[in-house]
């Protein structure tokens, strides 16, 4: 658990995966194997959601006067807000996912939900909730995959998790249905994507092009196009790859990089999923 890595320099935890080199904005994450014993985390500057992703165990967590004695199952998670300390007593070793959310990201999610920007995140221990669990497993899969979905996808997961932490049953501000981005702004965004297909585009970057907040951009773009922005980017990369394959000028491995995929196999999987065909079939048909 990253919490314990920071407090135990003697090597009680071993990192498996980290988002450090991926350029995520507002959210970061890490998977680590953690040994048994006691550990204390001093107050952090960021909000943290830590979840068990390895074998179950019995442990005790203490935060802000809350004590959770539990049989800890995979998917159970704790919410440690910025400024709070937490202590753990673990009976065995296991693997944990720690997700950190910057205050600015949480404030952006609050504004998008029509909530007070100063709404605080509450400490919670031993939580079981399928909505948040889906987001956390998606973050774990993104960390473990060499062929990741890109910064826009990770940014969206971070906003979704922040929104979950803020939601406490209060009414949300109504969002106009079926409106989408104005045509001129939408064209600016799609042109920008076309010009930067090989880049790892972030949600904030595309929202700035559209002139709206990242959280509103996600909804407005999907209303306009019918796809989440990260899926639209993959579709456009596949379309460009098909066009280049028909010309047949580049080796397959170079072509994959040329259109923004991590590898030839990444291109093949995405093309099969999006278009239902293989790159080799397109190349043969173009001859």
Short characterization:
The protein has 287 residues and is an alpha+beta fold.
What this model shows, in words?
The chain is α+β, with helices and mostly antiparallel strands. The protein has eleven helices and ten strands. It is 44% helix and 21% strand. A six-stranded antiparallel sheet has the order 1-2-9-4-7-10. A four-stranded antiparallel sheet has the order 3-8-5-6. Strand 1 and strand 2 form a beta hairpin. The protein starts with a helix and ends with a helix.
Tags for this model:
287 residues; alpha+beta; 6-stranded antiparallel β-sheet; 4-stranded antiparallel β-sheet; globular
Shape: globular
Low confidence ranges: 4-11, 169-175
What is the percent of helical residues? 40-55%
- Please identify the oligomeric state: single chain
How far from one another are the termini? 53 Å
Our estimate of the beta-strand percent is 15-25%
* Biggest β-sheet strands, sense, barrel: 6 strands, antiparallel
Number of beta-strand segments:
10
Task: Describe the secondary-structure layout.
Blueprint: H1 2-7, E1 13-18, E2 27-34, E3 37-41, E4 47-52, E5 57-63, E6 66-72, E7 77-80, E8 86-90, E9 94-101, H2 103-112, E10 124-127, H3 130-144, H4 151-166, H5 183-195, H6 203-210, H7 214-225, H8 229-247, H9 252-258, H10 264-275, H11 279-286
